[in-house]
Every structure is written in structure tokens, then in C-alpha cells.
Specification:
Oligomer: heterotrimer
Radius of gyration of chain B: 25 Å
Structural class of chain A: mainly alpha
CATH topology of the largest domain in chain B: Rossmann fold
Strand order of the largest sheet of chain A: 1-2
Number of strands of chain A: 4
CATH architecture of the largest domain in chain B: 3-Layer(aba) Sandwich
CATH class of the largest domain in chain A: Mainly Alpha
Largest sheet of chain A: 2 strands, antiparallel
CATH architecture of the largest domain in chain A: Orthogonal Bundle
Strand order of the largest sheet of chain B: 6-7-8-3-9-10
Structural class of chain B: alpha+beta
CATH class of the largest domain in chain B: Alpha Beta
CATH superfamily of the largest domain in chain A: MetI-like
Number of helices of chain B: 8
Distance between the termini of chain B: 35 Å
Chains: A mainly alpha, B alpha+beta, C mainly alpha
Shape of chain A: globular
CATH topology of the largest domain in chain A: MetI-like fold
Number of helices of chain A: 13
Distance between the termini of chain A: 50 Å
Helix content of chain A: over 70%
Radius of gyration of chain A: 25 Å
Helix content of chain B: 10-25%
Shape of chain B: elongated
Number of strands of chain B: 20
Order of helices and strands of chain A: HEEHEEHHHHHHHHHHH
Number of domains of chain A: 2
CATH superfamily of the largest domain in chain B: P-loop containing nucleotide triphosphate hydrolases
Chain lengths: 308, 361, 266
């Protein structure tokens, strides 16, 4: 007869078998159609570029990575910094940071407003934020594009009111890209902030008020510090897609104001430089991972801070 | 054979979690048929782990568990004729009251008519006939408690396990349910194993109690035995209130000993077989087994009255003994007041005959 | 009468919040209004009509792209939801083990990598596979959609399993239910809303995808979003407003359904 500990081992073994075969389909699909291709991109970034796109197989070179930062002069073969790439990299980071900051400044009060409504109204306001969140990004970009066009609603209105003589050029500028990104990513900021503020126990605020804190000081000293995880989560949720944005800068930046996403596309399209495109992709992924790492660090720190 | 009499026979059960944490350490308990048996102890003492081992949610690292003489330690929970009333009831929120009660019978593959009749019986037993079609999320805590009981009793298990089932109820409801549980146990004749950290609950309901601490069984006995002759300081302290006096055995004879207290006074104390027969010992005196005087008559202990705490039915008098220890005397309140008993007054304490007992060291 | 003091009130927050709601809905509202414009310009309203909806309806490319979207999305969402449910069970209904966190991170990976990177990665691999196998069908689109839908289905299902009281399943086992019966009678019924939510999220995500589809589609495999992206690069006609409005209506329908299903459980 089996002893209890043998049975316990057998049960554990069934458990191990179950947790593997149950997870296998998902793991396999993600491996084949997401992680595997990513590994291929890493390999491609170290290969020699083909003459008509693609790469020359198993001919390795660091040119792809090299040309992320440097370029060879066509005439005298001297090295110089690839200004065009650096400008695009800088634009990506700059616009992503500004977008994150502005959506935070707008999103926090909005989330706070929703979280402090009555139960019934809260659902209504929350629904109003959720709706754009799940509406096609392309449609929302198109919608904001229609507003800012030279013949769009904003310019038409301002012209008719006589505020401006000529239409404001917003489309195809950095400002246009920023406005578009802020518009499409605002819900991504509001939702995690709401989730965080909704759980806030206002007895802490009452305790602070009892100790002579004004409402502004309650906000500054109690609410915002305690909402740190939500603020970080929202910022990361906006920063990451901004950094890798493709559709919004493509439509609102035209062909001139590229961001990293568009530069990558260019290398796989007209540029026909797949190793460079791959290297840029890995750079972008690295940037996102870095942001996530900062997030995990900050989140775990503020988490332990609350307990301690 | 001794197995014939016992419902659950736990022998040398040890449960280790992870690499090092010993939740249970060589526990042996014999639970008799039709008994209301309570596992009592503070949180973390291993009582819930023991219950989960009996139910089959965990398997012991070592040792055997027998049910009516048959080894069950190796069976999965769904093959053990043992049912559990969970601490948070664990009622299925997507099923009605009746469906919850009938769930076990359904899983056993009983015919529909039999299930219906049995559910009907159970509804009557716990007085829930009117709420049978309600969702379990739509009824009160006390009602949920009844449904959980009915659900666990419906398959007529050999043993019913109850994991602190009353802890979520308020004081009054808890009192009612205590009586209800006792009635159900008597009516069904099923062995109940009840886990609690509430000593009062344990004393009022149980036929026998096992006191656990740190994964070990400290003492098993009837409520009276546990309360009147606790084995050691932990049991004495955990169940009821106790005064501890240190002293030294002067002479010991069979079950009595003369103990010289720190104050130099000798008292007679009961000497259980497990207690030391000589040397330094600890003596326990329950607060209700002592009397307090302020009239200066000679008494074994003397000191100053520090505080008077009024409890309605009785009053607790805290005395600082002359050699420094504290001693609590409980006194039943009566219409007559003792005017001399005021804080700061010098008092004498007398211990009832045969009330002091020597503890295991 | 002075307003009573409340610690919840913050000066200016309501104004900013209401401004945000106006900003969120003004562009969408404008788009919808112009979809009903009778005129041919996108600058001024010249009366209401449904002519642009009719134009879109008669546009074969639009219909074809819509049908393709409505083929890929349900298939991808269905397969992804099943795979995600199984994986969610494997990562919650078990004792904690080494590699569990890794498994979860692995499945969530498509969420962490920028879409454009996944898109070019799949372009690189699929273009090779297309040469090797000669197959250029819609399978590539579906496979890619399944992969990036899995984490979206996985998240709500796993979250529900994590908060679901394990004692319910224990109680069922205690009441003689075998593991398979525990799943059928307790786990699945309680998990069902989350599975539905996961499916709908996956569906919407697949339906909305532009970037990955744009990179891996073969010739003649436009979905509605990639068709729109192509059109938006040219001169925009009011027809786009009409198409977008219809797409928006579809999204609202799905999201509304999702919102109420997920709310009801609280």
C-alpha cells in the first residue's frame, strides 16, 4: 500500500504534468509567432544587408548596429554621426516624455474626478473614458487629424472669428504628433490612475485634515504620494506605446517628421536595409524594456514603502 | 480492538511545509465516534493544518490517519466520507441554496428523488425551507452558516469538520449557533471535529478538547479536565484566567503536596501524576478559587489592592502581593458591598481548599 | 450658504476633468457629424444625408476588407481564448513552482514588445516562410493575430482565477466531485464571465490591429483598418468619415457589452 508521502509525491507529479500540457498551446503559439521572430530579428541585426532588401545569410557584420549612430560619407568615405537618425531618436524620446507629462497633468484630475463621484455616476464617467480606450486607434487619429487640418474645425473656427489670418499649420509638425499622441493615449493614463484613486481610503485624507492640512496639502502630502504606483503605472502605459508609436506619427507627421517606428518601417521598405531596421527594432525594444524595468523597480519600492 | 471505538485515529502525524516549517510535529489523537471534539489553540498552532489533513486537502509528511479503522491518509478529498464546513463557508455563488445542499449527493451519483428528499430534510433540519431558491449571495451570514452546515451534512458523512465556522458571526448569533451546532450533533449522531481559537466556545460545546501549540498536542481531555487540571502553564493561561505562584515542594504524598510559596507560607496543592514530585514547582490558582479579606485576619498571601474592575456578574480584584507578584481574585457580585475593599487597602488572600494545583515544569 | 467642507474637493480638478471629456469626444463627435454631411467637402456642413454611407456600402473594397476583418477576428479571438484559458489554469490552479513567473512573462511577451517590432519580426520570418512553402494565404494573418491576442485574453482570465476563492473548489472536492467535475461544475461557471471578457478583448484587439497586419498581409489581404490606413494617406473623402463612424458603432457595441458584463460581477 502506498504511503501518504508517496501519494503526495504522485499528486505533485500530476500537478506538474497538468501545468505543462495545459500551458503548452499558448506557450507554443507565442514562441512561434512572437518570441521566435524576435530572436530572428536579433540575428538579422548582425548580418550583411542584401542588395534588394532581406539579408545575406550567415554573413555577419556589425554594419547594422554601426549605422544606427554613424554614417559613411558617400564621397570621401569618412565617418560622421548619422544626424538624421539621432534627430529621430531624440524626437521619439522627447515627444514621448512630453506626452506622458501632459497626459498625467490632465489625467490625474480626470481620474480623481471620476473616483470621487457617486457610485452610479462613477460608472457613467468611467464608461466615457473606456469607450475611446477600446475604439480603434486609427479612427481616433483620423478624428483628431480632421480637427487640426488646415481646413479643419479648429482652423475654420479661428479664421471665422478673425483670431488668425492664415490657417495654423499643426499637421506635419512635432506639435501635431504630440497633440495626436496625447489625445489617443489619454485614456491609458486615466484608467490605471482611476483604479488607484478608487481604492484610496479617504479616512487618510480626513486624518490629515484633522491634523490641520488644507485640501491642497492633503493632495500634495497624502494623496499623490500614496497614488505613486498608479501614477507610475499610467506613465509607463503612455510612455511605452508613445515611444513605439507608428500610426499617429505616420498620419500626423506626414513623411517628414518621423519617429522611431517610422524609421524602422523605412528600413524594411524603401531603405532596403534590414540589418539597420533590425538593429533599430532591438534598440526600441531595449528602450521599452528599460522603461519597464524602471517601473518594476519603482513599483516594488513604493509597495514596500506602504507596508513598512 | 481500540480502532472499533475511534472515528478518527491520528498517529504520529508530521506535516512539513517547504523545507523547514513544521506545522505539525508527531501529533497523535484518537477521536471517538459520535464525539464533539475540538482542536483548540492560538493561530499558527497547527489546528487548521490538522483539519486539512483529515479532509484530504494536504497529505501528511509522516504518520497515518485512520477513519473507522481504515487508512485514509492516501485518499483524495472526494473519496473520503468526511465533509467540511469552511471558515468562509465557500458556498457556490452561482448555485441556489438547494443546489448547494444537494451538490455532494449529486456528485455521489444519487438518484434525483433521493437527492430531493434529502435536501428537503436538510432544509428542515437547519430551518431554511423558505429560502431554498435564493442565491447564496443573497442571504445573511447566519443563514449562510446554516446552508454550509446543511451542505456538509447532506451526504451523511462519517465525520464533519468545522473550521472556525462561527468566527464571522456577531456575538449573539454566535451564541445561538453554538446551541444549534450542539443540537445538530446530537440529532445526527455524526462525529464533529471543530477547530477554534475561542476557549469559551470550546468549553461550552465540546465533549473533549485537544489543546495545540507549536504543532504539538499539549493536552487532551474533557472541558472540565482541561479547565480544572491544566497540564502546563500554556494550557492554564490559554483557557480561562490563572494566577501562577512559584514555590518548592516540602513533602509530597500520592496526589497531594505541601508547597512552600515565595512568601514563606505553606499551602496544600493537588499533585497530578505528570507533575514533578519534588523541587521547585509552579502552582496555579483560578481567580474564582480565592477569596479576599480586608479585615486583617491571618491568610496565606497578603498584599495591597491595586485595582477593582467591574464586570457585571462579578468583579476582578487585582492584588499586588507583598513579594511582588500579581494575583487576581474573582468575586461574584451581590447586593452587599464590602466597604473596606478600596484601592490601596492592605488585603489578605485565602485559597480555597484543594483549589491550587501543581503544573508540569 | 457656504458649501460644506469636503476633503475630497480639489480646486480646479472638476474643470480639468470636464475639459478632458470635451477634448476626448469633440474630435469623434465632429467625425460622426461630418459622416452625415451632404456636401463633398470635409470643411463645412452642407445639410444632412446618408449619401456617404451609401457610397461606402457600394464600395467593393470596403465590403471585402470588412468581411476579412470579421473572419480573422473571431477565429483569432476564439483560438486565443482557449489557449489563454488553459494557460491561465496552468499558472494559477497549482502550487507555486519555479518557472511559473517566467511562463506568465513569456505569454505576456507580445504586450511588452512594441507592435512595430513584432510587425517587422513577423515580416522577416513570414516572408521567408512564404518563399519556402509557397503558401501565401490568410493563415499568416490568423496566426499572428492569435499570438498577440493571447495575452489580452490571458490577463482577465488569470486575474479572475487569482481572486477566485480556492476554497470553493476545495469544497466541491470535499463534496465528492472529481477534479474534472470540479472544473465543469464550479471553476468553469464561475470563470465564464472572465472567459467572455477575455474573448471580447481579444476580438476588439484583433479587429483594431493595423500595424502588424499592414506588415504581414499578402497582396489583396486588406483588413478594414489597413484599407483605411491606405486611404488616409491619400486625399480624404467624407466616405472615410462614414466608414469610421460605422466602425466606431461596431466598437461601441462590443465595448458596451463588455463593460456591462464586467460590471455586473461586482
Amino acid at each position: 500500500m502506498a504511503t501518504a508521502s508517496e501519494i503526495a509525491t504522485a499528486a505533485a507529479r500530476t500537478d506538474v504534468r497538468n501545468r505543462w500540457w495545459l500551458a503548452t498551446p499558448a506557450l507554443l503559439i507565442v514562441l512561434l509567432a512572437a518570441i521566435g521572430p524576435l530572436v530572428v530579428v536579433v540575428l538579422y541585426s548582425f548580418m550583411v544587408k542584401g542588395d534588394y532588401g532581406d539579408v545575406k545569410y550567415w554573413q555577419f557584420s556589425l554594419d547594422g548596429w554601426f549605422s544606427v549612430i554613424f554614417e559613411r560619407d558617400v564621397f570621401d568615405d569618412t565617418l560622421k554621426l548619422a544626424d538624421a537618425h539621432l534627430i529621430i531618436l531624440w524626437r521619439s524620446v522627447k515627444l514621448s516624455l512630453i506626452t506622458t507629462l501632459v497626459t498625467l497633468l490632465l489625467g490625474f484630475p480626470t481620474a480623481y474626478f471620476i473616483a470621487t463621484r457617486d457610485r452610479r455616476w462613477r460608472d457613467f464617467w468611467l464608461f466615457l473614458v473606456t469607450l475611446p480606450f477600446w475604439t480603434n486607434l486609427l479612427i481616433r487619429t483620423f478624428a483628431i487629424q480632421e480637427v487640426f487640418r488646415n481646413e479643419g474645425v479648429v482652423n475654420s473656427a479661428l479664421l471665422q472669428l478673425g483670431v488668425i489670418k492664415r490657417p495654423l499649420q499643426i499637421m506635419f509638425t512635432d506639435v501635431g504628433i504630440f497633440l495626436g499622441m496625447a489625445y489617443v493615449y489619454l485614456p491609458l493614463m486615466v484608467l490605471p490612475l482611476y483604479a488607484s484613486i478608487e481604492r484610496f481610503d479617504f479616512r487618510f485624507a480626513e486624518a490629515a485634515a484633522d491634523l490641520y492640512a488644507s485640501n491642497f496639502n492633503v493632495l500634495r502630502r497624502i494623496i499623490i504620494p500614496m497614488m505613486r504606483p498608479g501614477i507610475i503605472a499610467g506613465s509607463i502605459l503612455v510612455f511605452i506605446p508613445s515611444l513605439g508609436a507608428y500610426v499617429t506619427p505616420r498620419l500626423l507627421g506626414g513623411g517628414r517628421n518621423l519617429m522611431l517606428g517610422n524609421l524602422i518601417e523605412l528600413q524594411f521598405g524603401q531603405g532596403r536595409n534590414w540589418p539597420l531596421g533590425s538593429a533599430l527594432s532591438i534598440t526600441l525594444t531595449g528602450g521599452v524594456m528599460l522603461a519597464l524595468l524602471v517601473y518594476v523597480r519603482a513599483a516594488s519600492k513604493s509597495g514596500s514603502g506602504q507596508h513598512g | 480492538m481500540p480502532e472499533e471505538k475511534s472515528a478518527v485515529e491520528i498517529r504520529q502525524v508530521t506535516k512539513v511545509f517547504g523545507d523547514a516549517f513544521k506545522a505539525l510535529d508527531g501529533v497523535s489523537i484518537s477521536i471517538r465516534k459520535n464525539e464533539f471534539f475540538t482542536l483548540l489553540g492560538p493561530s499558527g498552532c497547527g489546528k487548521t493544518t490538522l483539519l486539512r489533513l483529515i479532509a484530504g486537502f494536504e497529505y501528511p509528511t509522516a504518520g497515518t490517519i485512520q477513519l473507522h479503522g481504515k487508512d485514509i491518509a492516501t485518499l483524495p478529498p472526494y473519496q473520503r466520507p468526511i465533509n467540511t464546513v469552511f471558515q468562509n463557508y465557500a458556498l457556490f455563488p452561482h448555485l441556489t441554496v438547494s443546489q448547494n445542499i444537494g451538490f455532494g449527493l449529486e456528485m455521489l451519483g444519487k438518484p434525483k428523488a433521493e437527492i430531493a428528499a434529502r435536501v428537503e430534510n436538510m432544509l428542515r433540519l437547519v430551518r431554511m425551507e423558505d429560502l431554498r431558491h435564493r442565491r447564496t449571495t443573497e442571504i445573511s451570514g447566519g443563514q449562510q452558516q446554516r446552508v454550509a452546515l446543511a451542505r456538509a451534512l447532506a451526504p451523511a458523512p462519517k465525520v464533519l469538520l468545522l473550521d472556525e465556522p462561527l468566527s464571522a458571526l456577531d456575538y449573539k448569533l454566535r451564541k445561538e449557533m453554538q446551541i444549534e451546532l450542539k443540537r445538530l450533533q446530537l440529532e445526527t449522531g455524526i462525529t464533529f471535529i471543530f477547530v477554534t481559537h475561542d476557549q469559551e466556545e470550546a468549553l461550552t460545546m465540546s465533549d473533549r478538547i485537544a489543546v495545540l501549540s507549536g504543532g504539538r498536542v499539549l493536552q487532551v481531555g474533557t472541558p472540565r479536565e482541561i479547565y480544572d487540571s491544566p497540564g502546563d502553564r500554556f494550557v492554564a493561561d490559554f483557557i480561562g484566567e490563572a494566577n501562577f505562584l512559584s514555590g518548592e515542594i516540602v513533602t509530597a504524598a500520592k496526589d497531594r503536596a505541601l508547597v512552600r510559596l515565595a512568601s514563606g507560607v505553606d499551602i496544600v496543592a493537588r499533585l497530578p501524576h505528570f507533575a514533578p514530585q519534588q523541587g521547585r514547582v509552579t502552582v496555579i490558582v483560578r481567580p474564582e478559587h480565592a477569596e479576599i479579606h480586608a479585615d486583617g485576619r491571618p491568610s496565606p498571601l497578603s498584599g495591597t489592592l491595586e485595582s477593582i474592575v467591574y464586570f457585571g456578574t462579578d468583579t476582578h480584584l487585582h492584588v499586588r502581593l507583598s513579594h511582588g507578584d500579581r494575583f487576581v481574585v474573582r468575586r461574584q457580585n451581590s447586593a452587599l458591598q464590602d466597604a473596606a475593599l478600596v484601592t490601596g487597602a492592605p488585603v489578605g488572600v485565602a485559597i480555597d481548599l484543594a483549589a491550587a494545583q501543581i503544573l508540569r515544569n | 450658504m457656504a458649501r460644506r467642507h469636503s476633503v475630497r474637493r480639489q480646486r480646479g480638478f472638476t474643470t480639468i476633468a470636464l475639459l478632458c471629456f470635451v477634448l476626448l469626444y469633440l474630435p469623434i463627435g465632429t467625425m460622426v457629424v461630418f459622416a452625415f454631411n451632404a456636401g463633398t467637402t470635409v470643411g463645412a456642413i452642407e445639410g444632412l444625408s446618408l449619401r456617404w454611407f451609401v457610397t461606402a456600402w457600394n464600395n467593393e473594397s470596403v465590403i471585402e476588407a470588412t468581411l476579412r476583418s470579421l473572419t480573422v477576428a473571431p477565429i483569432a479571438a476564439f483560438v486565443a481564448t482557449i489557449a489563454a484559458t488553459m494557460a491561465a489554469l496552468a499558472t494559477t490552479r497549482t502550487a507555486s513552482y519555479r518557472g511559473l513567473a517566467f511562463k506568465v512573462a513569456f505569454i505576456n511577451q507580445p504586450l511588452m514588445v512594441p507592435e512595430i517590432v513584432t510587425a517587422v519580426a513577423l515580416l522577416v520570418v513570414f516572408s521567408r516562410v512564404k518563399v519556402w512553402t509557397g503558401y501565401t494565404g490568410i493563415g499568416y494573418l490568423i496566426a499572428a493575430h492569435i499570438a498577440f491576442c493571447i495575452p489580452f485574453a490571458f490577463l482577465p482570465i488569470r486575474a479572475r482565477l487569482e481572486t477566485m476563492d480556492l476554497s470553493l473548489e476545495r469544497a466541491a472536492a470535499d463534496l465528492y466531485a472529481t477534479p474534472w467535475k470540479v472544473f465543469c461544475r464550479v471553476t468553469f461557471p464561475l470563470l465564464w464571465p472572465a472567459i467572455l471578457a477575455g474573448f471580447m478583448l481579444a476580438f476588439v484587439v484583433s479587429l483594431d490591429d493595423v500595424v502588424i497586419t499592414e506588415f504581414i498581409k499578402s497582396a489583396g489581404q486588406e483588413t478594414l483598418p489597413t484599407y483605411m490606413l491606405g486611404q488616409l494617406r491619400r486625399t480624404v473623402t467624407p466616405e472615410m468619415n462614414a466608414i469610421s463612424t460605422m466602425f466606431l458603432a461596431l466598437s461601441i457595441a462590443v465595448v458596451t457589452l463588455f463593460f456591462f458584463l464586467s460590471r455586473k460581477k461586482d
